[in-house]
Design a protein that fits this description.
With about 150 residues, the chain is of the alpha+beta class. It has two domains: about 70 residues, Alpha-Beta Plaits, CATH 3.30.70.20; about 80 residues, Aminopeptidase (3-Layer(aba) Sandwich). Helix content is about 25%, strand content about 35%. The chain has four helices and eight strands; from the N terminus they run E-E-H-H-E-E-E-E-E-H-E-H. A five-stranded mixed beta sheet has the order 4-5-6-7-8. Helix 3 crosses helix 4. The radius of gyration is 15 Å and the shape is globular. It binds iron/sulfur cluster. Iron/sulfur cluster (SF4) binds next to helix 1.
């Protein structure tokens, strides 16, 4: 299961399959990470610096994070895509096709001028989370989505 949590400052990714429930994150920021709460992650409970440090303690990289850099990422099921925006300017896109087997992610791209900000990962996670919430399989075929969803380190 893939989940993405966002504030104006911070974007946090959680891959449940990598979580070994060692609770280092909980120890680092108990007000942010509370396994008894739903959703168990609430980024509004602590400063971004505290959350960032807690995530650095995660031994499996089930949790990772990036700063948002003012970039907004939106999911659009009708258009079968997620898109990233800097103000009005589109700076990235992840496209999928609905098939009987699931949502096939076939294209992920970000403006090279916006590289290194985790935008492509945000785009892929937005689609993956939406598919999983809808009870649909996610089938990554573009190389970036495969890397993020299957072999993320
Ligand atoms: S520190 Fe990482 S592996 Fe441990 S409970 Fe938190 S997310 Fe899971």
């Amino acid at each position: 299961m893939h989940r993405i949590y966002e504030t104006d400052d911070l974007v946090v990714f959680w891959d449940s399959e990598k979580c070994r429930h060692q609770k280092k994150c909980v120890g680092g920021s108990p007000r942010t990470f509370d396994p008894q709460r739903r959703p168990w992650i609430d980024l509004n409970k602590a400063p971004a610096s505290e959350i960032w440090q807690a995530i650095e303690q995660c031994p499996t990289r089930a949790l990772t994070c990036v700063y948002s850099h003012g970039i907004r990422v939106e999911f659009d099921e009708e258009q079968c895509r997620s898109a990233a925006y800097d103000g009005d300017r589109q700076v990235g896109e992840c496209d999928f096709q609905k098939t009987p087997e699931g949502w096939v992610i076939y294209h992920t791209e970000t403006d090279p001028a916006y590289g290194g900000k985790g935008i492509a990962k945000r785009l892929v996670y937005k689609v993956a989370e939406a598919a999983e919430r809808a009870g649909v399989n996610v089938i990554p075929t573009c190389s970036y989505a495969v890397k993020v969803l299957k072999k993320e380190s």
